[in-house]
Amino acid sequence: MIEKIKASKSEKIIFIFVVILGLFSITSFVLLKDKCWVIKDKLVQAGDVEFGKKGNIDYGKIGTGKSGLGTIKSEVDKDFNYTKGSVGLARSLKYDTEDSQFFIILQDEPLYEGEYTPIGKVIFGLEALEKIKYLNKSEYVLRPDFINTLRLFN
Amino acid sequence: MKLLKLILLYLFLISSAQADTIYELIKIPNLEIYNLKTENKLRYLNAKQAFTIGVDNNINCFKSSKQDLDKKYKIIEKNLNRYSQNFLKKINLKYIVMCEDLSISGINTAGIPDNVMKTLIVDIKFNDRYFERVLHHEVFHIINDSFKNIFNQQIWSSFNPKEFNYAECSTCTKKIGLETYSKTAGFITEYSQSTASEDMAEVFSHLMYGNLPATVDPILQKKIEFIKKGLLKIDENFIL
After folding, report:
1. B17 contact A CB<8A
2. What ipTM was assigned to the predicted interfaces of this complex?
């Protein structure tokens, strides 16, 4: 369960639209990777509604997909501590490229403050994320774990 | 003994994980956090081992001792605290990497700025005589790269006498002297005569360090005003 922090209007709009459209249901989790390595217990990322949907996964492109609803501006000036269980929006190297992909960190990451737009914290069930499938040697995991449903609570 | 080994392993894993996060953000390996809690949100990192980066692995820098780091950090922080958080955000500078014996293609250099990765690598063993001023010189390159339109090189070059030409690159010339001229003739140091961007950086660094010559010639005065106006265009609250 994720407790949402006070988000900007644009963040709320794109996140709600993506959830309402059901686009988040059944997207795979991707373990953060950079070319050859995957770090267990560091971070899980999901929300690639273009290349990460069950039944339509593109292993070559997963992690690069877009929602088709446009990008939103980064909001990295908020005071927010990226402690274990924090949730943030993924982006490319450039700011203002946030889309539907989000990540949940599994360890404290103070360097993420000021780098990634925060959107909430996991308040229940973090231990489930620590069991997400990963594979040390591969670029991707065959038959990855998926999100079943995502609901927004006010 | 077993507990000690477990503690050491835990610390190693934490350290590795942070190094991976640093690499993820700025693409420089073998770094660790030195200090994140700063007034203007600049983040200071240091080399925990030598690193090599660059297109042809042509940039090298080495680890410094804790004693050297602590000593030089105070000087670096004091100087870079003069830039506000707002200004640093505008020029896209966030990370300061401290190491020693920094070189690019075998040529020693005081610093390497990269506004795309929001990083400035600083050689903490650079000549003490010029160390503080050179910090500002390197920051100017970040400013310049982020605001090329404001610090237009053609306009700058037009201030010089018509017969003067800069070199093709800053390392393509033997004009490397950093000593401030007491009598200026359009240039504040020998190094100013290398390229337009180095000239601008030298003028800026003297403005920040506060060691302009007692009298300046009309060409240098134009250059000083150009820099001042440019800074105010970026941040109307900028204080020299």
Report:
1. yes
2. 0.77
